[in-house]
Amino acid sequence: MYETMVTLVGNAATAVEHRLTTTGSSAARFRLATSARRWDKERRCWVDGDTSFYTVRAWRSLADHVAASVSCGEPLVVHGRMRVRDRELPEEKGGQRRVSVEVEALAVGHDLSRGTSAFRRVSRTSTSPAPSLPSSPPHPEFSPSPTPSDAVSGNEPDWSSPPPAPPPEEGGIASA
């Protein structure tokens, strides 16, 4: 299979939205803004070019780590598979054609040329098998992606609703 792999350098333009799919897998998404910089000979300084925006999606443990590590405005490097989506809006929304570019992230990190970061390794404690996929057809609003199992089965999280409330914490500190 031929895939377009890209590496983007830019800033997180939105906060990370973190959800669970119906199969229990983690999914995260955020927008990344990238601007080309060039040297302006006349003004003798660096100037920003046009800004491009990309939707970045992450799955499973990468989604959890992105949600815990990335904040709006932070400089990032994103590497993954690029997908161009061409769709037409419904008549009630104007019926216009829209093109969007998404990146299914394989790796996301802070751009260390613009600051420092402290890495913390997360140990895996779960040894449970991966959840099985339901046999339902994909949701028509989302194009299926061949690699993440949730995208193939159409279990895209509902990004239009607010995230579920965290479970209530038990009061006090447990004693031994």
Span between termini:
55 Å
Strand order of the largest sheet: 1-3-4-6-5
Overall spatial form: globular
Task: Give the integer mean of the pLDDT values.
Answer: 79
Order of helices and strands: EEEEHEEH
Number of helices, where a helix is a run of at least 4 consecutive DSSP H or I residues: 2
Task: Describe the largest sheet.
Answer: 5 strands, mixed, barrel
Structural class: mainly beta
**Would you report the number of β strands?**
6
Helical fraction: under 10%
Poorly predicted runs of 5 or more residues: 128-148, 171-176
Measured by DSSP, the beta-strand proportion falls in 35-45%
Radius of gyration: 19 Å
Protein name: Single-stranded DNA-binding protein
Region (Disordered): 117-176
GO molecular function: DNA binding
Keywords: DNA-binding
